[in-house]
Design a protein that fits this description.
single chain; alpha/beta; Pyruvate-ferredoxin Oxidoreductase, domain 3; globular
Length: 190
């Protein structure tokens, strides 16, 4: 099998590491060679966070180059736009519509770009945008955006939903499992 590439992008503290752990866990169960690598800047200061998940028969490097990502999963809209050059032709951006102001916007030096979903689609990119923050609130925790996104991403895979849910049970602390299962269902069903 040709190596497949998933980039998970966002802002520090949004749960991208748990999302990549869950994805890696699921892919390993299917017998794939999996490489997960995190690259980030000032993640504890709200900086950009990127995690690479690569899987296939044999994966030699954990890094994804420009034009190689089959999926970009984004926790924040500007981060989705920032990484579009990494998406391969025919790839999909699965993104939360939430907007988190970067420091230049916070300080007033810039304004947050408008209509980012429309602008990305105008470039011919396939963008699956969803208000994950509202769905996370419905699930019981604003921190469940990561699992909402995993539910949404699961729609593009042939793996049964129960396998994704089992990965959640195995990767999430027990006291948060039910809420995360609900979040997964909300992401998958919308």
């Amino acid at each position: 099998m040709e190596t497949k590439n998933i980039m998970i992008v966002g802002v520090g503290g949004q749960g991208s590491l748990l999302a990549s752990k869950l994805l890696g866990h699921l892919l390993l169960k299917y017998g794939y060679d999996v490489k997960v690598s995190e690259v980030h800047g000032m993640s504890q200061r709200g900086g950009s966070v990127v995690t690479y998940v690569r899987y296939g028969d044999k994966v030699c490097s954990p890094i994804i180059d420009k034009g190689e990502a089959d999926f970009i999963v984004s926790f924040e809209l500007l981060e989705a736009a920032r990484w579009t050059e990494y998406l391969k032709e025919g790839g999909v951006i699965v993104t939360n519509t939430q907007q988190t102001d970067p420091m230049p916007v916070v300080t007033g030096a810039m304004t947050y770009p408008e209509n980012l979903v429309e602008k990305m689609r105008a470039l011919g990119l396939k963008v699956d945008a969803l208000d994950c923050l509202s769905l996370a609130a419905e699930a019981g925790s604003l921190k469940a955006v990561n699992i909402i996104l995993m539910g949404r991403l699961s729609k593009y895979f042939d793996f049964p939903a129960e396998d994704w849910k089992q990965a959640i049970r195995e990767c999430v602390p027990e006291r948060f499992v039910e809420m995360n299962l609900k979040a997964f269902d909300l992401g998958q069903s919308r």
